[in-house]
Amino acid sequence: MSKWLNITPTFIQLKPYEKKKVNYSVAIPYTEQGKKAAWSIIMIEQQEARTKLDPTNKSDNTVALGVIPTYAFGVFVYQNPPNVDNNNVEFVDFKLTNENDATTIIIEAENKGDGIAYCTAYIDLTNINTGDQQRLTVKKFTIIPGLIRDFAFPIPKQIPKGDYIAVGVLDFENSEEIQAAKMEFTLK
Predict the structure, then answer these.
(1) I need a labelling partner for 40 at 20 to 30 A (CA). Which of 57, 74, 153, 184 fits?
(2) Three-state SS annotation for 25-53
(3) Which of 22, 16, 74, 1 is nearest to 44 (CA)?
(4) Which of 151, 133, 131 is nearest to 142 (CA)?
């Protein structure tokens, strides 16, 4: 989408607590590319004047290096035309990991559609022996076409040890279907 963005002005100077307006426009082409989802990141960066490097030990082999700390942040810009079919998000993997004394369930999902998908994912745990159920934190996210994303669901330390069934649900705002995966594991 960066080819379609126009930002004016591209450079501004601000005094402390001063505000200035920056305009941006997006010109989406009336082509096949314009009929697909597109995205970009607008980076806003602090500009610092470069200082002259004056190394104390000068010779033919002297290399000088300077570091100028600055601040920057990004603004996501994306478009999802009404003609895209963004109902094709799939589980790539559903797995349990144990690293650094933390047990985590990972949902790996891929957007195989042609539009940006707006998803909700959650995991329900059921203790096989007691029947107790708990839903891990619900996550909402977007996933762009062709991208694979990992979502980590840490299992809280206070959950009792035992045998569990985990059901992972991936809802990508398609009224006709959702994706689900199941696994059994033992929490030791």
Answers:
(1) 153
(2) EECCCCCCHHHCCEEEEEEEECCCCCCCC
(3) 74
(4) 151
Q: Copy the structure tokens of residue 129.
A: 């022996």
| Residue 179, both tokens | 């994706």
Query: Do 118 and 143 form a contact (C-beta atoms < 8 A)?
Result: no
pLDDT digits 0-9 by tens, 88-98: 888 999 999 99
Measuring CA to CA, how many Å separate 63 from each of 49, 55, 58, 59, 159?
Answer: 20, 8, 9, 9, 56
**What would the two tokens of residue 60 be?**
């033919």
State the chain's mean pLDDT as an integer.
88
What pTM was estimated for this model as a whole? Answer: 0.70
Closest CA to 147 of 175, 177, 117, 176: 117
Report cis status (omega within 30 of 0) of the bond before 9. Answer: yes
